Amino acid sequence: MQVRQYLIRRLALLPLIMLGVSIIVFTLTRFTGSPVGIYATPDMTPDELAALEERYRLDEPIPVQYAYWLWGLLRGDLGWSGVSVAPVTDVIGLKLAATLELALFAALVAIVGGIALGTIAGVRRNKAPDHAARFFSILGASTPTFWFGLLLLIPFYLWLDWFPIGRSTPEIFDTIAHPTGLYTVDSVVSLNPTAMWDSIRHIILPAVVLGFGAMAIIVRMMRSSMVETMSEEYVDAARAKGLPEKLVIKRHARRNALVPTATVIGLSFGFLLQGAVAVELIFRWPGLGQWVTSAILSGDQATIMAYVLITSLIFMLINLTVDIAYAYLDRRVVLGS
After folding, report:
1. Which domains does the chain have, with CATH numbers?
2. pTM score of the predicted model
3. Burial, 215: exposed, middle or buried (Cβ in 10 Å; 0-12, 13-18, 19+)?
4. Cα end-to-end span (Å), the chain
5. DSSP strands (E only) in 16-151
6. How many percent of the chain have pLDDT more than 90?
7. In 178-232, where does DSSP find H-type helix?
């Protein structure tokens, strides 16, 4: 009941927060100039451009333009994407699915690897595994994503040809249905081994590159939390009761160490969506990052605003999920108190 009430209160604030985000983004993008160029053709005369601005209400004051844009948003119209030559609503779902798939696999790499290495480092403090984990975390936090991606491309793509670039092989991708938009999930649902292998080969390398930096941060946080937790009295009490060391670590130490680490994990997933920009460009992954990069270079304001709104919404939902995870991991946490 408590979680449900907390969810209702937080979700009720989402429209107000998104309204504030939309006002800021719309105003800033309009200050960069009129988006009429997205709708215009090179051979248009000044009179035709003026008529085009009048048609799309771009000759009105910015508050009036925002009111018309907001009304269109409420009706499911996010404008026209010049880089995709299609309505934004027709494109954003496909791009979001591609980026979300990449971010989920990168998060899986970061979370599983980060928690495992951080736990080992915390339990074996100041020993060889701890030193190795700290070296890894420093390396991961200081290595630029684009450089690491290019470094892995040379042996695994150019020399060995183990992991191709792109999201899929088009001929294989088109042989299955895509109800979820996630290629890996759709290949499993379709029970197509060829598509499964194709999806795995394409996603492994970009997921590792994207998740490497986040995993390093999780390792450092998990290691620090484990060191602190292992010195607590309740851990000593569990050992005094005769519990096996593995059970003490799993039930008592690691669970409590995950409480502060949950915040880092949640924020890391949000930043994975943004960090996917460089990875998508390097690996030719057709997601939000590659889409918004093209939009920025061409001044496609409708695409830029849609990207900011969707990523802002994802960040807020992630923070909400992290708060609920706090209450699950630590029963002392009272949501909304």
Report:
1. 15-77 (no CATH), 95-165+204-329 (1.10.3720.10)
2. 0.86
3. buried
4. 14
5. 80-81, 86-87
6. 40
7. 183-189, 193-230
